[in-house]
Amino acid sequence: MSASLKALHDGLLQEYKDRMLVIAGVGQETLFRLEFDSAFWGLWEHTRKITERKPCDENRDGDGRVPIASAHLEDVAIRYVEGEHGGLPNIPAVAADVLAWLQDKDLKLSKTCSGALGGTLGRGKYGHSRAAARWVGDREQIQIAARV
């Protein structure tokens, strides 16, 4: 987060942060680091993209686009779900929790990364298939919902 955005977030009253919810996707290889080869003058095609996943490591796990560390907002509630960035809105449990949040009801998504990854190989903890979670790969993710 840039310094100006962090300062803006830090300046929010807690009552406003309590209206926010982050839903973070996990279980996908996510870009961790770029290594440039100086012999090729840093050309993109010769850049090594480090994506090796380490389950629930905040820098080495994520939704395929956003690592867990980048999804965290200080003093804001976060829930985790196994899924790919663009497919998160298509996961029924995500939609259900967004609606529950907006209605000030209890959430069912996991409060921990390891809890979100606790499902079976074929289907996630909340019954979504991994294929369905990836179906809309490039659509925007509903990542933050705010109660009004």
Describe the structure in brief:
About 25% of the residues lie in helices and about 15% in strands. With about 150 residues, it is α+β, with helices and mostly antiparallel strands.
Report on this model:
The chain is an alpha+beta fold. It has one domain (15-146). Helix content is 24%, strand content 15%. It is built from 6 helices and 5 strands. The strands form 2 sheets. The chain has a 3-stranded mixed sheet.
In terms of topology, how is this protein built?
Blueprint: H1 3-10, H2 14-17, E1 20-26, E2 33-35, E3 48-50, H3 68-71, E4 77-82, H4 92-102, H5 113-116, H6 130-134, E5 144-146
Parallel strand pairs: 1-4
Antiparallel strand pairs: 1-5, 2-3
Overall mean pLDDT score?
80
- Biggest sheet strand order reads 4-1-5
**Rounded to an integer, what's the Rg over CA atoms?**
17 Å
Largest sheet: 3 strands, mixed
- What is the helix content? 10-25%
Beginning-to-end CA distance, first to last residue: 25 Å
Supply database-style keywords.
148 residues, globular, 6 helices, three-stranded mixed β-sheet, 5 strands, alpha+beta, two-stranded antiparallel ribbon
